[in-house]
Amino acid sequence: MNSLNSIWQARQGLDTASAGAPAYSTTMGGAPAYSTTTGATAGAPLLSVRGVGHAYGETTVLHGVSCDIPQGRAVALMGPSGSGKTTLLHLMAGILAPQQGSIVLAGDQSDLARLGIEDRAALRRSRFGLVFQSGQLLGELTAVENAALPLIVDGVAYADALGRASELFAPLGLGGLDARRPGELSGGQQQRVAIARAMVTRPQLLLADEPTGALDRRTGEEVMTLLLQAQRSLGASLVLVTHDPEIAQRCDLVLHLRDGRIVSASEGVLR
Ligand SMILES: Nc1ncnc2c1ncn2[C@@H]1O[C@H](COP(=O)(O)OP(=O)(O)OP(=O)(O)O)[C@@H](O)[C@H]1O
């Protein structure tokens, strides 16, 4: 029960953080400024972001951002510190509520702007997988329990959930490490567990915020390779925040933010 209590506390913490989002400013606006329909990324988008604005209190940090996240493709978000990358990623993930504009998911056409906090959390659990800069693993759980968390929270039987999570370990280079606690794993191994946790529900969309930011270059490249393999094997889309141009260039599409606006889009050259 301790494990399950930890899981619920972790969930509640994430969702309460969204509930505490600062007030909405009505002064934001903006029209789509560019097209992401290039040779590499043509086709119906998985996520359509239209005119999304966001303010923290009186400070507007996103100004009517519009972009498409293509189905089954990897998209990098780049830009200077403070340009709004993480805020945009959190809006796409439903962690923050869109204050202006719409974020529509293909299929049932769910608009995250119209969903309440609990519905966004349910959508996130069932259709999205998240990877953060440091694994954000629960220290008292084993590696495989951490990876199985999204299934356990969604009511899958404990043994089944662990079995499904464990199957992901060998392809991610984690063979034999199921029973280790996060504190007994290297940073790169912890990020691999985080990728397993993000994959375990077979999501349509992977969202990663500087997933290699805390790793040395070689380990970061390995983790990035695994993340792209995960995205392709799932047939999912990936949105990745990164400061590293080489990592960004391994994505299909690179969106550049500046001062809360997308100022350019280009195809990755190292795909
Ligand atoms: N919870 C918050 N409350 C108030 N201001 C915030 C909050 N989160 C972010 N900001 C501010 O919003 C702006 C955009 O932040 P955001 O984290 O989205 O940028 P970023 O491009 O991801 O930056 P970095 O590359 O440094 O991580 C920054 O000026 C930041 O200080």
TrEMBL record:
It holds the Pfam family ABC_tran. InterPro entries: AAA+_ATPase (IPR003593), ABC_transporter-like_ATP-bd (IPR003439), ABC_transporter-like_CS (IPR017871), ABC_transpr_LolD-like (IPR015854), MacB-like_ATP-bd (IPR017911), P-loop_NTPase (IPR027417). Residues 47-271 form the ABC transporter domain. The keyword Nucleotide-binding applies. Coiled coil: none annotated. It comes from the Bacteria. It comes from Barrientosiimonas humi. GO terms for cellular component: plasma membrane. This is Putative ABC transport system ATP-binding protein. GO terms for molecular function: ATP binding; ATP hydrolysis activity; transmembrane transporter activity. Keywords: ATP-binding, Nucleotide-binding, Transport.
